[in-house]
Amino acid sequence: ESSWNRFPTGLEYWKQYPIHVTAWSYLFGAGFMSLVCVAGATFNLEILNFASGSETDTFTLPLEAMAPLVYAVFISSALCYGLITWLNKYM
Questions:
Q1: Calpha distance 34→40 (Å, rounded)
Q2: Which pLDDT value is given to residue 35?
Q3: Which end of the chain is more exposed for a tag (fewer CB within 10 A), N or C?
Q4: Is the pLDDT of residue 26 over 70?
Q5: What is the average pLDDT across 1-28?
Q6: How do residues 8-18 score in pLDDT, each as one tens digit?
Q7: Pair 52, 46: CB distance under 8 Å
Q8: What is the pLDDT of residue 8?
Q9: Please, are residues 13 and 7 in contact by the beta-carbon 8 Å criterion?
Q10: Residue with more model confidence, 68 or 57
């Protein structure tokens, strides 16, 4: 009998190892973001706003936008990662 038959397959496998679903989703997400960034920077894709502005333009962030940005980056991300971790543990 093949050794492959000892491993769970299909839905049974993903229920047994839910962390793999999370890992694969992050891997594909990071891969596609990288692909878009490299393609946009290489080909100066205007549809992605890579070619807008001049090379001397600088990025400035208004002071009023700092609090929402900190919330979006830290609170939302930490909350999402915490919920994913909790779901993986109790799923």
A1: 10
A2: 92
A3: N
A4: yes
A5: 68
A6: 666 676 667 66
A7: yes
A8: 60
A9: yes
A10: 68
- Taking the C-alpha atoms of residue 87 and residue 91, their distance in angstroms, rounded to an integer, is 5
Tokens of 59: 């990025």
Contact 27, 17 (CB under 8 A): no
Q: In the chain, which ranges are continuous DSSP H helix?
A: 10-16, 18-43, 66-70, 77-90
Tracing tokens 């915490």 back to the chain, one arrives at 82
Non-local (6+) Cβ contacts of 36 within 8 A are 48
* Rounded-to-integer distance, Cα 65 and Cα 17, Å: 40
Task: State pLDDT tens for residues 28-63.
Answer: 888 998 998 888 878 877 777 766 666 666 667 789
Long-range contacts of 87-91 (CB under 8 A, 24+ apart): 87/18, 88/18, 88/19, 88/22, 91/15, 91/18
Helix (H, G, I), strand (E, B) or coil at 44: coil
Closest C-alpha among 86, 79, 75 to residue 19: 86
